[in-house]
Task: structure prediction
Amino acid sequence: MEKVVIAPGSFKGALTAQQAADIIAGEVSAAFPDCVIVSLPIHGLGECNVDMIIPKTGGKIYEAQVISPDDRQITANYGITAYGTAIIEMSQSSGITRQIGYHPMTSSTYGLGQTIMSAIQWGARDFVICPRDGATTDGGCGMAAALGVRFIDEQGNSFIPCGDTLGKIVSIDTSGIDMRTTWSKFTILHDVETPLFGINGAAHVDGPKKGADPEQVKKLDEGLRHLGTLLYECFGKDYANIPGAGAGGGLGAGCMALLGANLVNRTEVMIKLCGFKKKIAHADLIITGEGKLDTHSFHGRILSCILRDAGKVPVWSICGVCEYNEALMCKHNLIVFETREGISIEESMNKPAKYLRNTARKAVQYMKFFSQDF
Result:
């Protein structure tokens, strides 16, 4: 074993990507002291937007006074790079941790729109928005309302839609949108390929995580379906079925239609930034990892990008929990080690470093046994 690339993502709620990489690299180094180890923790955007990217660009962090998802005044941080690009995390203004309790039907992205307006006032005309860890399922309508878009009901009154009231929109008037948004470029980073609505859409996939019960999920999905129809009627394009349209509770679709935004896979951006393809050259093995390995892992997240770029280099994954079919993993030529094997999820979450180290040690023993094949 001459060269091993360690490229995990975060173990959400337990370990950062850097912590996971350090633990795995330590075990590989101990077993193969002469091995070249390349550590490439794949930081998820939402972990590293403002706090990690802005200082490296000579940029500045700003504060905006905004409305929280549950209608309170809060402070949201965002950054503007030295080149004038605003980096905005949805989680800062409209995140699930910025509210008291869960409000799946009434939470709004209005605060996100206010954050965008703040950055516009500071001169930003290029925006990168990460729609991660949001509390909302309003299709970005709250955000758009804060920027001047009017949503009209059947009585002719304008209102600010939320998940519960998407179905009441009968028309969309963009004539009052702040003109500076039309001169701006918007990029939405996403890590899921969910459409706007349907069984694999925003409401069904993420609604329960935001506190929605089955009946609420059904209503949210109906509202997003209605919004998708309106966007098609207003703008002549089927935004609803573009992969990533459902990101951020439908924010992806709303930003594409109302702001002319481009959707870009955030993991692909981070993998390109770290020079992944170049650094895996002549590697004998790539070890990645994540908190939960499931269907989404193979559709736009870190594992799928690594498998795509790995070529003939074997890929192993160390995960907290594996919820994927073993036969399909074989199809991807993927070997998986699960940290919670033999213990409860709660125990593995309580001592994540210990159990990741133990599992990495098992993987290393497997490497020793089969190293002659590499």
Notes: Residues 49-267 form a domain with the Glycerate kinase, domain 2 fold (CATH 3.90.1510.10). The mean pLDDT is 91. DSSP finds 15 helices and 14 strands in the chain. The chain has two domains: 3-42+274-373, 49-267.
